[in-house]
């Protein structure tokens, strides 16, 4: 009797264990299997495959910075009450970047304290010029920096090897592995010495490793806001322009207006044209100007706004002394963190494929519209070599094939050296300078290249 009961209990227990084992067997949860893939996920996958071989061991740190809280600086509005704004910024623990900048250039024997004023009509002083016997694309970097035969060929080299309807994205890493440049462009370079920060720039930021946020800008007694918050690397393209009195400047892709505002904060007597092809983006620019500039300010009479596709400026030959071409790009930081209006969304794949070609056309238009002796500064907020050095190379080749114009490429390494304590520069690009986002100074990314028309 007892033996029968023991066997029955044993069978019941084994059955219960078997049921429990089936119920709680380890497996991937359905929610994980069916997780929706967002545009930012596609962006990160693209960056992992594309930027990792370019940045190597630095990529994990850069990736972490892209996904972390961005750092800002406060540009004091000289058209408000600047003294009160500076007092407030000091009280909250920020410091003026001028102190760091000038402490470095004071120790640099090569620093030229007085910027040499040259008349644009007289051409460019090339005494500092270093002719390059060969192209800036050396053999070791041919898989990274790009060339192509003609403008029409550019689309062939846009990374489009993994298109599967709208379910997959352009894979730029495949482009790097298959691209084989056939022709290069040779031209001369000039090494820029450090120059003083614009005398009226008042730029404050928190110290290294300090991730506190700025309080929101406040209205001054003059009815305009006291400072403007922006990524400090966004000042580098304006700094590279070296704005001077009497310059006629075009900000070709001006909206939302931060760099145009930085130009005006130099308090130089310039004529500034702020252009953008988007009506809604120009609305944001006008809002920025109305928030930071009083209608009584004389500077307002020297600022005009235009709604034109920047590529159409190619027909306005040699009009401007200086042109800033801060082109639309993949905006790496936003693409990695924000899903709304993300360029990596499946429905925007064709738009993203044609970004480098559009960038090259904008830069080519600027090179045509600038005067001899004038300066063009090209910038993006992307790490992508295609959108940076690749576009510079394509635009210069296009100008060489279709015009008789000649250009100097500026080596900005020494000019930007005093910013070395603030920004993490990546020396890989042969054209221009690239700032990488890195903790604890989480600015960028920002790419800057400067060109001067000499004939």
Number of DSSP helices? 16
Distance between the termini: 111 Å
Helix content: 25-40%
Strand content: 15-25%
Q: Biggest β-sheet, characterized?
A: 11 strands, mixed
Query: Which spans have pLDDT < 50 for at least 5 consecutive residues?
Result: 109-170, 173-182
Shape: globular
Number of strands: 15
The rounded Rg comes to 27 Å
Taking all residues together, what is the mean pLDDT? 81
Broad structural category: alpha/beta
Can you describe what's shown?
It is built from 16 helices and 15 strands. With 455 residues, it is α/β, with parallel strands linked by helices. Strands 3, 4, 7, 8, 9, 10, 11, 12, 13, 14 and 15 form an 11-stranded mixed beta sheet that branches. Strands 2-5-1-6 form a 4-stranded antiparallel beta sheet. Helix 3 (39-55) packs parallel to helix 8 (172-178) and helix 14 (355-369) crosses helix 15 (386-402). The longest helix has 22 residues, at 2-23. It is globular, with a radius of gyration of 27 Å.
Short description:
The protein has 455 residues and is α/β, with parallel strands linked by helices.
Key features?
455 residues, alpha/beta, eleven-stranded mixed β-sheet, 35% helix, globular
List the helices and strands and how they pair.
Layout: H1 2-23, H2 30-33, H3 39-55, H4 59-67, E1 73-76, H5 82-91, E2 95-96, H6 97-106, E3 129-130, H7 154-157, H8 172-178, E4 188-191, E5 203-205, E6 227-230, H9 235-241, E7 248-251, H10 258-264, E8 271-276, H11 279-292, E9 303-307, E10 320-326, H12 332-337, H13 349-353, H14 355-369, E11 370-380, H15 386-402, E12 407-411, H16 413-416, E13 424-426, E14 433-436, E15 446-453
Parallel strand pairs: 4-12, 7-8, 7-10, 8-9, 10-11
Antiparallel strand pairs: 1-5, 1-6, 2-5, 3-4, 11-15, 12-15, 13-14, 14-15
